[in-house]
Amino acid sequence: MDTLYTGHNLIRLQRVDSTNNYAAKLIQANKWADGTVIVAEEQLAGRGRNRKDWLSEPGKNLTCSFMFKVFSLPAKHAFVLNAAASLAVCDALLKFAPALNVRIKWPNDVFIDDQKVAGLLIESQIRGAFVESAIVGIGLNVNQTAFEFPRAGSIALATGQACDKDVLLTLLCSALEQNMLRLKSSPQHLMSRYNEFLYALRSERTFLIRGEEVAARLLSVRNDGMARFDIRGSVYSCELDDVIWRW
Ligand code: BTN
Questions:
Q1: Do 15 and 62 belong to one domain?
Q2: Ligand 1 closest atom vs CA 139
Q3: Residue pLDDT, tens place only, 230-244
Q4: Does pTM top 0.90 for this prediction?
Q5: Which of 70, 101, 173, 184 stands 20 to 30 A from 126 (CA)?
């Protein structure tokens, strides 16, 4: 493992309810090292954002959680963690296959072209006004080739060949570690790179914003996670819950 600490404690499980739940139990027991990684071949109750299930064909994909201690990140800027982690997935994918058109759909879905290939579920532990630790759960579709969800894809579908999950896991460990270190030294740099990777940036799309169907352009995302949209020439700041994508 080409990292300082991430993945040095690698817990491989055949089957688990959810790797994020497993990580949360380690935190509760106060028995974990910075950079611990939990990988499962199968999740029986994989969780996505907004209380959705995360479905993944057993053995085909990466379902894993990375555990990090976090230093001096104000809780009100916890979104920068999302930016750091989703960028790390992009960096790892581009190292693996540089020609891929990798993008981040706000807040943290990773797309190749118009297909979602990865989802992130980040669960932070807050103490006082600061983030103390974070569980970065990543579901990365690697070798699955059939999906129920119409806009889902995988690296195998994008590259046209079966891919080595362990190579991808090693790339994820080093990209995540680098970005976790940048959280403290250069959060603004992370946010500007995050913005460069945004899916559908500045292109006119249809959204349901606060209940109204509108044509809008996504302009940028701030470090508190709010997005700025251009709607009919005026700029509006929106929270995630205000916005539904229409495809
Ligand atoms: C989403 O797109 O809604 C986020 C999906 C996150 C799925 C991963 S798989 C590994 C980790 N364990 C979970 O239960 N969820 C995350």
A1: yes
A2: 9
A3: 999 999 999 999 999
A4: yes
A5: 173
Q: Is the CB of 35 under 6 A from ligand 1?
A: no
pLDDT digits 0-9 by tens, 70-103:
988 999 999 999 999 999 999 999 999 999 999 9
CB of 151 sitting under 6 A from ligand 1: no
Residue 43 CB–ligand 1 contact under 6 Å = yes
The finding on whether 105 has its CB within 6 A of some atom of ligand 1 is no
Provide the mean pLDDT of the chain: 96
CA-based nearest residue to 109, from 172, 48, 189: 48
Give yes or no: residues 46 and 123 share one domain.
yes
Task: Give the end of a domain, one of 173, 196, 219.
Answer: 196
Q: CA end-to-end span of the chain, whole Å?
A: 40
CATH number (domain holding residue 146): 3.30.930.10
Q: Find the mean pLDDT for residues 160-165.
A: 97
Same domain, 186 and 85: yes
Neighbour-count burial of 43, counting CB atoms closer than 10 A to its CB (0-12 exposed, 13-18 middle, 19+ buried): buried
Residue identifier of the C-alpha nearest atom 9 of ligand 1? 139
> Which helix (H) or strand (E) covers residue 131, if one does?
strand 130-140
Amino acid at 39: V
Torsions phi, psi of 162, nearest 5? -65, 145
Residue 23, domain extent: 10-196
Q: How far apart are CA 153 and CA 5, in angstroms?
A: 31
One domain for residues 89 and 116: yes
